[in-house]
Amino acid sequence: MNPICKLLHIKYPIIQAGMVWCSGWRLASAVSNAGGLGVIGAGSMYPETLLDHIQKCRKATSKPFAVNIPLLYPNVQEIIELIIQEEVKIVFTSAGNPATWTAILKEKGIIVVHVVANTKFALKAQEAGVDAIVAEGFEAGGHNGREETTTLCLIPMIKEVVQIPVIAAGGIASGKSMLAAFALGADAVQIGSAFAIAEESSAHQAFKNKIISSSEGDTRLAMKKLVPVRLLKNEFADAIAKAEAEGADRNLLLELLGKARAKLGMFEGDMENGELEIGQVSAMLNEVKPAKQILEEIWQEFIEGVKHLSSLNFPV
After folding, report:
1. Cα gap 103→110, rounded to integer Å
2. Angle between helices 291-311 and 25-33 in degrees, nearest 10
3. How far apart are CA 31 and CA 291, in angstroms?
4. Rounded to whole angstroms, what are the CA distances from 93 to 1, 28, 169?
5. pTM here?
6. Averaged pLDDT for residues 177-198
7. What whole-number distance in Å separates Cα of residue 178 and Cα of residue 166?
8. Residue spans per domain, the chain
9. pLDDT per residue over 131-186, tens digit each?
10. What interhelical angle do 119-128 and 151-161 show, nearest 10?
11. CATH code that applies to domain 3-203+288-311
12. What distance in Å separates the CA atoms of residue 173 and residue 192, rounded to the nearest whole number?
């Protein structure tokens, strides 16, 4: 049996990423009901909001679901306590040191998966006791690795140095890219951008439309002096790029970023002044569909790819 399916008790080794302003209970429950693992993105939620989403998700699905916690957020302790109180079974941590909370979560019987972008932190996560790793390549949206290592390079490097399951992320939105990730050694895939435009995604329709209309080269990695993030190009992203080209320091970037910039764009629909986090694969996305259909199409294309490779009868 696939190690991730066994660990997480899911049918398909497909995980929906915990994306800020996109990954509420509707999306998470829809993905879980379809046989993958739905993930509630706690990064855009106050504790009382997260509580509401956890309880609604539990009513909407009897299948496993997870919560993603960006560890750099200031109220992380309150979020952790809430997750323990609500007996959430699976947690994906990211953007921080897994050694701080992994042991505490595992003492409560919670499965912990940590997101990394290089081999150094993959080893640190394994040492901290996590159950699996998400290896996220440069192509991914949202928070990104400073090293800019692509998924094609990252997955085999991490797979070579760890003994726990590896989930590939970054640039994966089809069965073909899923097949490539498995060929590189991945045990499962985590998919963000394709689910960001799902019918059940809580993203604003204007953001979904902008993703669908985007083309190759319409995203860029920005704010490496803060936390690197991949953004769709707009007036805000252009202002950040201009400031960085002129040598802007951390303080100026913080000033330009301000507060609630991602909410302004992704949730409230301001396509010019908002922070629009999405992956490079957005250029390949062209239709809003139900999450179940997205997952099933990816899985079917993956299976067809496996059969096609098997039919080629390569000499061995």
Report:
1. 10
2. 40
3. 6
4. 25, 16, 14
5. 0.95
6. 98
7. 13
8. 3-203+288-311, 205-281
9. 999 999 999 998 788 889 999 999 999 999 999 999 999 999 999 999 999 999 99
10. 40
11. 3.20.20.70
12. 8
